């Protein structure tokens, strides 16, 4: 844990996060088994394997139906979050049971992270603003939307 609040400290935290991520990836790879399929058997939602599509008419039909019509999820709302390298990424989907969603909204972490910028640059030189923007790792395209 770092107690400094400068750009170098944020850089060191980022490097430490990358090292921890590598540890997690190694742990996950050690637990992955090479036995069995790695995709669900859900004919109306998951596209069939290429080889099945070439030999089975039913698989070919499912393939075309999925990519032309889509699939119909249950009516309702769902909000799911996941940890991304920039922070918490959220996705909200509202459905009426048809293949097209009523509403889809993504909560990107860049907009939230940008709100810290005025406090970070308080009392700093103008040239330090660029380094601060780089260390909070925002994507301005996400902020602008």
Instruction: Note the main sheet.
Output: 3 strands, antiparallel
Rg calculated over all Cα atoms = 22 Å
The shape is elongated
Q: Which structural category do the helix and sheet elements fall into?
A: alpha+beta
Strand order in the sheet with the most strands: 1-2-3
Question: What's the β-strand tally?
Answer: 3
> What is the CA–CA distance across the termini?
34 Å
Q: Helix fraction?
A: 40-55%
Number of helices: 7
What order do the helices and strands follow? Answer: HHHEEEHHHH
Low-confidence stretches: none
Q: What percent of residues are in strands?
A: 15-25%
Mean pLDDT over all positions: 86
What would you note in describing this structure?
With 145 residues, the chain is an alpha+beta fold. Among the domains are: 72-83 and 90-107, no CATH class; 108-145, no CATH class. The chain has 7 helices and 3 strands, in the order H-H-H-E-E-E-H-H-H-H. It has helices at residues 7-31, 50-55, 57-69, 109-114, 117-120, 128-136, 140-144, and strands at residues 76-84, 87-95, 103-107. Strands 1-2-3 form a 3-stranded antiparallel sheet. A hairpin with a 7-residue loop joins strand 2 and strand 3 (103-107). Helix 1 (7-31) runs parallel beside helix 6. The radius of gyration is 22 Å and the shape is elongated. 3% of the residues are buried. The mean pLDDT is 86.
Task: Give the SSE layout.
Elements: H1 7-31, H2 50-55, H3 57-69, E1 76-84, E2 87-95, E3 103-107, H4 109-114, H5 117-120, H6 128-136, H7 140-144
